Amino acid sequence: MSPHDLQAEPMTTDRASDGGIRFSVYIPVWNEARWLPGAIESVLAQTHPDWELIIGDNASDDDLAAVVAAFEDSRIRYVRWERHVPLSENHNRTMLLGRYPWLHVLSADDRMHPDALAQIAARIEAYDGQRLAMVLGACRRVDEAGQPTDLMDGQVGRQGIYEPITGGRYDAEGWVRANALPGIRPWMVGAVSVDRELVMEVGGWRPEMGLCHDLEFLVRIAAFGDVEYVETPLMDYTVRSDSVTTSLSKRHMRRGEAMVQQGVAWQAIMLAHAARRTISPEERGEVDAAIARAFLQRALWQRLMHGGRGRRGAVGDIWQAAGFSARTVIAPRNLAAATIAIIAPRAWLERIRARAHRSGRVLI
Length: 364
Known about the structure:
Elements: E1 23-29, H1 36-44, E2 51-58, H2 64-69, E3 76-81, H3 87-95, E4 102-105, E5 111-112, H4 116-126, E6 132-142, E7 168-170, H5 172-179, E8 187-195, H6 196-202, H7 213-220, E9 226-238, H8 244-255, H9 261-274, H10 281-304, H11 310-330, H12 332-343, H13 346-359
Parallel strand pairs: 1-2, 1-4, 2-3, 6-9
Antiparallel strand pairs: 4-8, 5-9, 6-8, 7-9
Helix pairs in contact: 7-9, 9-10, 10-11, 10-12, 11-12
């Protein structure tokens, strides 16, 4: 479901009385009554006051109306949809209720830092280029108790966790290449504000992207304008074993899809960018390497995750990875991981995964 399939609320173009930037923060939610109050509280705690909050209830079984009613603030709107739809579609229909020029999505289990909107507003006000597509920042990964996860131990970028993205402005190619780096992206959607008019022009979240709908949306949109990145974490992202991401990963494995979902997302991203500019060979090679790493990661999951296809599936994924970037596969660390994925007993793989998690490392 694209934003073009729905009737959007008229946009309020007036600036706030003090000339400030205005945000439509929206929470597309299904159930999650346990988590939703904390998300609302994090919006209410913003030092930047010029916002509205829209909560789009995806036909929940939980009584979310009662949860929202506990917060008496005229800037909060609650809408319950009578028909349950896939996650991306609920993002789109809730997003279109926003009336302000900047759209900011937040998940029910994530928490914005108090100065998040203020920092984003400052970047918007200071922008002096042709068109600003979005402003986003890093996130801090926490467990369900709000404590930093093992993934954040040590210095970022030195343990194979993820490569940091340097704060500042990115053009289209720069943003693609920054996100094709190895490891985990240091941002999540709860720290992202996008230009509403641009979203209406180019479309929103794409359901066919599955668990990578955020990657596809927020790298595709950079084809149409600049990106401002805030290196300071703007939100806490909750790592949960029962999250939507986990369930979508399991569904992907059960279906035995030929292409990894990161690959589907990257291919769609590059089509959008290629329609507007020339893709350099170096950029294409970095994206192919990112797809190859995704196949190598799935090769391990073929052995570890319920619904995986075991050694046969692992061999197939390694072969697919080599087709995208043989150089990536034969890199010493990746080649070792690929070999382990094929020959190691499952019990060994479980121990290796547990040890990597405790040390804050990723295997590929």
